[in-house]
Amino acid sequence: MKKILSSLVVAAAVAFAPSAQAQFALDLKLAYAIPVGDATLNNPLSDTITGAIPIGLDARYKFTPNLSAGVYFQYAPAFVKSSFCDAATGASCSATGVRLGIEVAYAFMPDAGFNPWVSLGTGWEWATVKASVGSVSASVTADGWEYFNIQVGGDFALSKMFSVGPYVGFSGGSYTSQTNPLTDTSESIPSADRTFHGWFQLGVKGTVNL
Fold it and tell me: What is the pLDDT of residue 1?
């Protein structure tokens, strides 16, 4: 019995002992994104937005040095196509995108000087376009499920705490509702008009291991 109790005590001590490895990681990302696909049926997203600059923050918990999971947030000022909002009319336009979701990441060589990694996430996406003429303005926001958000990259270790490196990514989903600029109420997009759209990203990621 004493041997069994001693074994249990040792096992508990090992299980709950403070880990020498960092348990949390914060990722700051900066990228350029290009839209593909349609916002709605026969309405290419690129006819409205030509590109965006996503600024992202991920917070991950490391279950092992290789495997982690957490949440991601991204805010992206976007560029409105000139033909969509003609400056000659006196109007000015702006656009933004927001993403929020959960992700799982896998690091292939966490203790090496260069660490390749891959992540897969899913969440929700919002895209807003705003037009203003003088003191009058109106905006439309479309939102919907982001089916997947996959990213692949590599980190160069600057120290045990900091790393930085490039990444590429692609996310895809569909908009399922939008606001009516006249009534400022949310309306469901008819199922027949819902289409797939995506965003290619090329950027850089900096990581802080806590």
Answer: 46
159 CB burial (10 A radius; 0-12, 13-18, 19+): exposed
Say which residues have a Cβ less than 8 Å from residue 120's Cβ, sequence separation at least 6.
Answer: 103, 104, 105, 148, 149, 150
How many Cβ atoms from other residues are within 10 Å of residue 202's Cβ?
A: 12
Distance in angstroms (rounded) separating the CA atoms of residues 30 and 112: 24
CA-based torsion, 58, 61, 63, 69: positive or negative: negative
Task: Kindly report each contact of residues 16-20 with a partner whose C-beta sits within 8 Å and lies 24 or more positions away, as own/partner.
Answer: none
The two three-digit tokens of residue 89, written as one number: 């009319």
Query: Can you give the pTM of this predicted structure?
Result: 0.85
- End-to-end alpha-carbon separation of the chain, Å? 40
**Tokens of residue 126, six digits:** 């919002």
